[in-house]
Every structure is written in structure tokens, then in C-alpha cells.
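Input/output pair, single chain:
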Amino acid sequence: MLREKSSYKDVTKHILDKMPDIGKWQYYFILETFGLFLSIKGRLNFLGLARYGKRGEQHYRSRFAKDFDFLSFNVELAVQHGSEEFTIAFDPSYVNKSGKATPGVGYFWSGVSGRAKWGLEMSGIAAIDIQGHTAFHLESVQTPGELGSKRLPRPLRGSFGGQETTTAPAVQICCGGRVLFQARFYLKAGGQRF
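Output:
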């Protein structure tokens, strides 16, 4: 919950002013896009952005292809509008997906099914404001699909408690030179996480 009532534009401008690597075009593009996200009903796609926005569809496509540091933006938002006490939450979410051509597809643990299933996995990272009883989303990262495959290099394979395992390189979330989150995924050969 925001401490004082202010418009999304004021909050966004204040945070973007603190980010040193933001160019003029990106500054105004983010302001316009956030306004469109809040005002468009239904599906958000490039055609809808062009219909309700000031630019053409290709403009939005090309701007979205450029990188933006959402982690730094979201951390600054949490620091400005949260309390002094935070903890980090990590939540992997399974998404059903058939086929083999989709990048990142593999076997991932589905808590609903209670087993490893073929599909995609998104890992969400949030800052939980303990005193404010709320959470601020920080980053979403697609989990690499090759974790359970036999194509991993030899040093990343091993055994744990008699079970053959694979490990991915450590995932590190950094902001402003500080490590906010670090995790290493361990999978059984069949794709189950432990």
C-alpha cells in the first residue's frame, strides 16, 4: 500500500529520475505504456497499444524489444513505499505447454499435480513488506528448460543421497551492487525438484 495518495505518473517519474541509465525516449515510453496498461480493458497486445496509444504498432514492438531494468525500478518502488522490514519470497509457477519447439520447455514440478510435468516454469521473486502486510513484485524469470536434460555439462551432474541429480548454475538477482537473491536448482534425473 502506498503511503501517500499520488498518481501513477508522479510515482513513476520519481523512480525513473533516480535510474541513471534511462534515456529520454525510454522515460516517456514507460510513462505512456504504464498509463495504457492501466486504462486498456481486456487483452494487452501491440495492436491494442497502437489503437489506444499515440504511436503505431511497430513502434511498440520495437520499443518492447529493448531492455528495461524492471528489477531496479521495482526495488526502488518497494524502498520508497514500503516499511523498513522486508523479506524475499521466491515462487516457481508451472505452466502447461505441449510441443518441443517452445524455448525453455522441459519437465518441471507441478504442485497441483504432485509430479513433474512437461511445460514451462516462471519463477517470481517478491519483496514482502512485513510491517505493511503487502508484497512488491520484483522480477519474473523463466526457468531454463534444460535443467532436467542429459545435455548438461558433466560438472553440473552428480548424486545426492544416492539419487542422480542435475544442478543449474546459481541464479543471482542483483541490484545496485547488492545480491538480493541467490538460488541453485536441484533436479532428480526424472525432473523432480528436491
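Residues 22-68 form one domain. Residues 148-171, 184-194 have pLDDT under 50 and may be disordered.
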